[in-house]
Amino acid sequence: IDGDNLIFTVTFSQPNIISATIDGSDLKLAGVRDSSGTVTVTVRATDPIGDFVEDDFDIVVAPQNDAPVVDVAIANQEVDEDFAEYTVVDLSTIFSDIDGDELMYSATLSVPDIVIATVDGDNLTLAGEPDANGTVTVTVKGEDPSGDFVEDAFDVLVNPVNDAPVVDNPIADQVIPEENLLHIDLLSNVFSDIDGPALVYLVSSKDDNVVAFRGTLDPDSLYIRAITDFVGTDSIFVSATDGEFSVSSNFLVTVTNENDQPVIANPIADQIIDEDAAEFFVANLSSVFSDADGN
């Protein structure tokens, strides 16, 4: 009423909910980031001799949901093929929510069938798919109950590891007649290698009574022949190697007896005798003829 210039000040019943600025005679208020609640604002007007009057009013700052944030990015991972399951990280150390909401986590993969990503509570685990390698991006989502979310992505490099060849179809035991040739086709149906390189085959026999060899023009084929006049059983060893690992398929070959025609071992020499010659010895016929069968 005296026309004095007044000095205005402002105080709050609680700090860190709103901020106030007095610009001349204008009072301006602003919210403090991520803060909510009720605060009483007291505005004082003071004249030059110190007399003052105050006015109070309440401000209710309604809470607004805040989306989760990524505090620390998940590091890229490098592992070898067929790696065992391990825990990558506790996701509660990666994501946070200023509202204190409990977050739900999920993980998706850019490429299937290389790794298995599992979220168990706050833990993210990875495991290798069998015989798979390559690079996959894992995207992890942290979502609050209101549906707001944030994502963090990292790469997993799975290095290839050489796998040993395997026997898919073992070679069965074989029976062949004496002095016959046995042909076993397509060794590639017997062995395989998940890594796909061409395999090298090696063959041998236990007692050398049966000769095993691969075809010159068809190296995918196996040929077996018994030595001359052998009758009986021998073991055949067939191995496939990729240059680092190998695997074998062993089987028995039984050679059955076949009647052999007698042969002339020592021909009887021509003879010259005189008329009315007395009986004389010409030859022991058992040394002239022979039979491989022993008959």
Number of helix segments? 1
Mean pLDDT: 88
Strand content: over 45%
The residue fraction in helices comes out at under 10%
**Largest sheet composition:** 4 strands, mixed
What strand order characterises the main sheet?
Answer: 7-14-13-10
Low-confidence stretches: none
Oligomer: single chain
How many E-type strands? 25
Shape assignment: rod-shaped
> What radius of gyration results from the CA coordinates?
47 Å
Helical/strand content category: mainly beta
Could you walk me through the main structural features you see in this protein, from its secondary elements to its overall organization?
- The protein has 295 residues and is mainly β.
- β4 and β5 form a beta hairpin.
- The longest helix has 4 residues, at 285-288.
- It is rod-shaped.
- It is 1% helix and 48% strand.
Can you describe this structure in just a few lines?
Helices cover 1% and strands 48% of the residues.
What does the secondary structure layout of this molecule look like, with pairings?
Blueprint: E1 7-12, E2 18-23, E3 26-31, E4 37-46, E5 52-61, E6 69-70, E7 77-80, E8 86-90, E9 95-96, E10 104-109, E11 115-120, E12 123-128, E13 134-143, E14 149-159, E15 166-167, E16 174-177, E17 181-184, E18 191-192, E19 200-205, E20 210-214, E21 222-226, E22 232-241, E23 246-256, E24 263-264, H1 285-288, E25 289-290
Parallel strand pairs: 7-14, 16-23
Antiparallel strand pairs: 1-4, 2-3, 4-5, 6-9, 8-12, 10-13, 11-12, 13-14, 15-18, 17-21, 19-22, 20-21, 22-23, 24-25
